[in-house]
Amino acid sequence: MLQFISRTCNVAAVKATPRPYHHGNLREALLHAAEKTLETSGAQSISLRELSRELGVSHTSPRRHFANKQALLDALALRGFERFDLALGRATKDRGHNFQTRLTKLTRAFVSFALKHSALLGLMFEAKHRAGAPRELLEASEKAFGHAAAAFAEGQTTGEVVAGDPWRLSLVVFAAMQGLIALSTDGKFKGIPLDRLVGEIIERLILGLRPRP
Amino acid sequence: MLQFISRTCNVAAVKATPRPYHHGNLREALLHAAEKTLETSGAQSISLRELSRELGVSHTSPRRHFANKQALLDALALRGFERFDLALGRATKDRGHNFQTRLTKLTRAFVSFALKHSALLGLMFEAKHRAGAPRELLEASEKAFGHAAAAFAEGQTTGEVVAGDPWRLSLVVFAAMQGLIALSTDGKFKGIPLDRLVGEIIERLILGLRPRP
DNA sequence: ACCTGAACACCGTTCAAGT
DNA sequence: ACCTGAACACCGTTCAAGT
Question: Is the dihedral of CA A114, A119, A123, A125 positive or negative?
Fold first, then answer.
């Protein structure tokens, strides 16, 4: 399986082999190459001309698959949200735990995704924020964050969570995680690794900032 | 005073008036023009050549004042953090209130800054996050966020806040705000304006997600 | 349907030269 | 000390033409 992937995706191999006039899978190849560039050199280093060069096609061929550069970035962001959704779904599918445990798993999955794909996550939110962002992108984002709302709703039925709109309650947690990542550098906040902070923050959110009466 | 500013900063006036060989204030003028572009068209639209054109100087003259484009963006981010610091400082200087009120004022100031200068805030965090970001930028960020830590420390002395490192406690609040902004679109989350959500979130953070016993 | 090549209007950065 | 002009090596996008 891994060999299959590396054979179809290996850029050098594609370049060396005499390529037919039609690439056959240019859209996929562009997205794959773009993501590699994103993770290694940042979003600003993504260039349609450079990607074309890597894939051995003319610099105008991306046009057939993406109306412009932004469309390619949006497609990359959409894939990001889809994978993000899967990661969060996996983290919450096990219902045999209490609310705090589920919430901790969910937030750890979030932080883990953020650390592994930090440039992609940045691109995802930037694309979503853009004026005139495609509807699919907003929907994909909504879907991913729905996992938290679902966990909160279930926590309410078991009496572990206060009453209120689950979406607005879950906002607090996601916001805290998203912000934690934004405020941190190198996966650390004031020298403490993020994944060590997660458990602490979740407990603080559940118990509140006020001293116990 | 306002007239003075508009006279010295008005780009059209500078362009129309026969300009001496030395601009005299090119560094300032570049930063001012760059911020205008940032707020109206986004960070990606900032171009050294275009700024030079607007100011009526050659496209190579920015080089004397900024080693490269990134240096100009960093300078812009640094100014952002300084203004951010001032805004948060003003919001917390009045000590005649309880912890919840002070915290709400602080977070409202944060959200207000974020809504007024969203592109700048984005640039600030991106610049801070960059590998090899200048030390000044990290220090300026630290200084601004110190206002929250101070409010938490004081809340502890009056028994309104649980024990613990004030920096780590304040992280929860700032993270929540930062994330709230990131997760929202157009200053709204699911149609509800951010400033309406702030009070609700602060109360939730203070009381906790758990139902009252 | 998919890809190419030439052309256009942009970039940032470097460097020798001017005031 | 500060600014300029020419040059270099890049961009994204358009469009007529090729397979």
Answer: positive
CA A66 – CA A187 distance, rounded (Å): 34
Look up residue A200 and give its two tokens.
Answer: 């602490």
pLDDT of residue A17: 43
Give the mean pLDDT of A6-18: 35
The confidence score (pLDDT) of residue B24 equals 84
d(CA A103, CA A109): 10
A31/chain B closest Cα distance in angstroms:
21
Dihedral sign, CA of A58, A63, A64, A66? positive
Q: Is A135 on the interface with B (CB under 8 A)?
A: no
CATH topology of domain B75-213: Tetracycline Repressor; domain 2 (1.10.357)
Under a CB-based contact definition with an 8 Å cutoff, are residues B178 and B120 in contact?
no
Whether the predicted pLDDT of B119 surpasses 60: yes
Segment B58-76 mean pLDDT: 98
Average pLDDT over residues A169-180: 90
The C-alpha atoms of residue A22 and residue A90 are separated, in whole angstroms, by 38
Q: Return the SS3 of A21.
A: coil
Rounded to two decimals, the pTM is 0.88
What local confidence, expressed as pLDDT, does residue B70 receive?
98
Paired tokens of A99: 């609310």
Confidence of residue A213 (pLDDT cuts 50, 70, 90): low
Architecture of the B14-66 domain: Orthogonal Bundle (1.10)
- Kindly state the tokens that stand for B169: 């406690």
Per-domain boundaries in chain B: 14-66, 75-213
What pLDDT was estimated at residue B20? 64
Q: Which residues of B touch A125 (CB under 8 A)?
A: 182
- A24 CB-to-strand C distance under 7 Å: yes
Range from A4-13, B22-31, B34-43, B65-74 carrying the lowest mean pLDDT: A4-13
DSSP-derived letter for residue A46 is: -
CB burial of residue B123 (10 Å; 0-12, 13-18, 19+): buried
Pairwise CA distance, residues A15 & A10, whole Å: 9
